[in-house]
Amino acid sequence: DGKALAPLVSAYIGDAYFHLFVRERLLSYEQSRVQVLNQFSARIVSAVWQARAYQAIEPMLTAEERDVFRRGRNAPRAASVQEYHISTGFEALLGTLYLTRQFARLQEVAEASFQAISRQMMAERREKKGED
Q: What is the pLDDT of residues 39-56, one digit of tens each?
């Protein structure tokens, strides 16, 4: 039962799922430069960008999904404390959706997250170019 698992187990699965999802999505943009794909996907799945994705998709989540997120937050590591908490909760949400076989919802949340990250990365890139 996916709902009965410890939040960190759900986060572990959610992290793996989001890595795979992002890699598949990036193939629609680039298929020949694997090193570029790897570097870009690593950036997208970082705690910083997962935290931003969660903040962007939070309004579309159900109360139960927000509760899974809250339970999934954990002690900090590499990113800021807040970003890491949010990132771990985000991974727990994805993991729970995967483990409870809510694949349509999982796809919807992952796609919305990918789109949010893409928009924010492009905005930052445009800002950076404007500074140069």
A: 989 999 988 899 999 999
